[in-house]
Amino acid sequence: MNINWYPGHMKKTKESIKKNLSLVDIVYEIIDARIPYSSRNPDVDGILGNKPRLIIMNKSDLADAESNKIWKSYFEQKKIPVVNVDSLNNKGLDQVINMSYVLTEEKRKALENRGVKNRPIRAMIIGIPNVGKSTLINSLSKRKGAKVGNRPGVTKANQWIKIKGDLELLDTPGILWPKFEDKEVGLNLAFTGAIKDELLDIESLSFELVKRLNLISTKFIENRYNISVEDKSPYDIIVEIGTKRGCIIRGGEIDFNKVSNIILDEYRKGVIGRITLELPN
Ligand SMILES: Nc1nc2c(ncn2[C@@H]2O[C@H](COP(=O)(O)OP(=O)(O)OP(=O)(O)O)[C@@H](O)[C@H]2O)c(=O)[nH]1
Ligand SMILES: [Mg+2]
Fold it and tell me: pTM of the full predicted structure?
């Protein structure tokens, strides 16, 4: 889903998230492990205030394992709790549950002191489009099951889902706007599929991706497409990949649209490799 964000829209979103914030004990801020900086909403700290928060680096399976560790310690140094998750394959979910208990200890104690016993921890997910909010909700709820239904006294529209460890999760995630000001960030979002391929046309985007991948390591393109990239421009490389993959139109010309889609698609699916696009400064 792609959303055009306008100031009015952003304000509304912020308000509705703040309203939901008052219903939960902890927030899961979900980001893309391949672009942990670019996939964070720029205003998230202000929106969350002092609410306990857990950063979920989702799609960790698509990101480089060593870079996952680097980012994890980066956030930990900033005293922001973080877990690596692959919500497509249910990896890291137990850590999410355990950390939820740890991070809400104060709140649980306060409730107990007021005589409220065994009240489930309530959580909600927030994140920019396409980071995996729905997939995470599904994988967390699969383990425990059914919807709780409308809770009396709580806004009708809010459905709660029981998840493992007697937690409850708000079934509607907060969809936040991405950063838009920075060109590099825009490219990262487009490479990973977080925004529609409209920032650049698909052909320019694949050129930029080939350039970027080769900057990280030439082995990715070389191994995947079985070609040498030495002394070749992105244009030459794409022509070679296109030829190999039979992306040819009448007259023997390269079908740049087709080959560009192949390259982008293969990066996004992780078949070119587990590649993290940015590291902490
Ligand atoms: N490899 C991998 N793919 C994932 C993971 N989580 C989500 N995906 C994929 O990422 C894409 C987007 O996932 P969604 O759960 O729809 O993302 P969303 O945040 O709900 O997206 P919007 O509702 O559009 O904002 C889907 O193709 C998922 O299969 C993950 O941990 N690993
Ligand atoms: Mg969704």
Answer: 0.93
